[in-house]
Design goal:
binds adenosine-2'-monophosphate; alpha+beta; 5-stranded antiparallel β-sheet; Cyclic Phosphodiesterase, Chain: A; 4 helices
Length: 179
């Protein structure tokens, strides 16, 4: 099973983010835009995990001692890629988010999972393979959504599957923070 652990977004935050992505769509000549049902903030990407190791993933999640915290989402940014940019919505991350991500990663590594060593850059992916008509510099200010804040009170284990050519994420398990 292809798995990752993520923070899910409230429905109104997804709606607002989708409006920004809709505007972005008008400004690209190429790009793939995931639907709002796929918006999330990844905490840990596990990749392929045998089903019999699911309990170990759940126990790593439950061992985290984080309390709920507030997150603010800001404007747009991008990772430059030769095949077209990844465009994302910025997460103005408090220390609590970095602590949670570190705690979770340490717990997973202790249980023998291998994680990517790249630096944690919290973000919400809005587009992949994006090629802009007039350059990203003109896009980001025009399409930027207003900042929005919400309380993070849980994290969710997601299964990622390709179904009919589409990525479908299915929640498998949830850990409530501070429980
Ligand atoms: P992305 O949105 O920046 O692509 C499910 O694929 C989630 O795991 C996505 O949020 C993706 O980040 C993240 N992820 C991290 N490392 C990945 C990898 N090596 N392959 C695929 N997804 C990865």
């Amino acid at each position: 099973m292809r798995l990752f652990i993520a923070i899910e977004l409230p429905a109104d935050v997804k709606d607002q983010t989708e409006r920004a992505a809709g505007d972005l769509k008008q400004r690209v000549e190429a790009g793939r835009f995931p639907g709002k049902q796929n918006y999330h903030i990844t905490l840990a990407f596990l990749g392929e995990v045998p089903r019999q190791r699911l309990d170990s993933v759940k126990s790593a999640m439950d061992s985290c001692r984080a309390e709920p915290f507030t997150l603010t989402l800001g404007g747009l940014g991008r990772f430059r890629r030769r095949e077209g940019d990844v465009v994302w919505r910025k997460v103005e991350a408090p220390d609590a988010l970095f602590s949670l991500q570190k705690d979770l990663s340490d717990s997973l590594i202790q249980r023998g999972f291998e994680l990517e060593s790249r630096k944690f850059t919290p973000h919400i992916t809005l587009a992949r393979g994006a090629v802009f008509k007039n350059g990203f510099g003109t896009v980001a200010p025009g399409s930027a959504p207003d900042d929005v804040s919400f309380t993070v009170s849980r994290m969710t284990l997601m299964e990622s599957r390709l179904t009919g050519g589409k990525r479908v994420y299915t929640p498998m398990y949830t850990t409530v923070l501070g429980a």
